[in-house]
Specification:
four-stranded antiparallel beta sheet, globular, single chain, five-stranded mixed beta sheet, about 270 residues, binds fe (ii) ion, alpha+beta, 11 strands, 6 helices
């Protein structure tokens, strides 16, 4: 899912009257799918492509096998970046304007790991997010929360030799979307990672612990296995918290294997 497509695509939901669906009806649908999943006794690690409570998921995903391109051919025309193209300061989303953004300053760090627990070095990690009031800088996001002139909400970093990334930012607020009546997304930060090739882009969302909106959110619940979706939730880490400056969260991303971080289908 690209920038706030979760909110943007609500306008193309399969049900033109989706905003008339109540949270209670969505809750019932989520519970029904969860019960079926528990009865089936299978082990899913990824979001479902077809997840009816998440209305726009029904029309959006591919119905045919993807066209497989030759990665080496793609590399000839794909953008490239080197160490010098990603400046250290780009990982601090709080210093991109003249003034300080409003909100709760946070540090997020973690490792990008492969399925065997090995660090993935020099990985380009990009993030985008709403501001503290839950507002994106995007013309399609028009809900009446203030734009922060000192916060754009995008940043990027390269992982170091231990596979570690670090971002300084502002804790995003929850925001409404049009999946159903009174639908709200839990606070989240979108993450994008490139592998060793630009054909390996992976996109996911990181959440904050204890969010009361988890149970109500069809996007979070579209990962029907509770253990898998909990892998999208960062943990508060007091060792990451900085004295009189910012609270700290830790969130590792596992690219492959049985503990793989749930990922969204790649979109351009
Ligand atoms: Fe979002």
């Amino acid at each position: 899912m690209t920038e706030s497509q979760d909110s943007l695509q609500a306008s193309t939901a399969t049900d033109p009257d989706s905003a008339s669906t109540s949270q209670a009806e969505i809750d019932d649908e989520i519970a029904g799918i969860r019960d079926d999943y528990e009865r089936a006794g299978t082990d899913e690690t990824q979001p479902r492509l077809d997840y009816p409570p998440y209305r726009s998921s029904l029309l959006r995903h591919p119905t045919k096998d993807l066209h497989h391109a030759d990665p080496e051919t793609i590399e000839l025309v794909a953008p490239v970046f080197g160490h010098r193209d990603v400046a250290q300061l780009e990982s601090d989303l709080t210093i991109q304007h003249h003034g300080e953004p409003v909100g709760e300053r946070i540090v997020i760090t973690g490792k990008v790991l492969d399925g065997d627990g090995r660090p993935v070095r020099n990985q380009l990690v990009e993030i985008w997010q709403a501001n503290a009031a839950g507002r994106y800088i995007h013309k399609r996001d028009q809900h009446p929360a203030p734009i922060d002139p000192n916060f754009t909400g995008t940043g990027r970093a390269l992982t170091d030799d231990e596979g570690t990334y670090v971002f300084s930012t502002i804790k995003p607020g929850p925001y409404p979307w049009k999946n159903h009546h009174n639908a709200w997304r839990p606070a989240h930060i979108h993450f994008s990672l490139f592998g060793t090739e630009f054909t390996q882009r992976m996109i996911t969302q990181m959440y904050f612990p204890g969010d009361p909106l988890f149970a109500l959110d069809p996007i979070y619940q579209s990962i029907v296995d509770p253990k898998a979706r909990e892998r999208l939730v960062a943990t508060y880490d007091h060792d990451v918290t900085r004295h009189e400056w910012a609270t700290g969260y830790r969130w590792d991303i596992v690219l492959t294997g049985t503990h793989r971080t749930p990922l969204e289908e790649a979109h351009s």
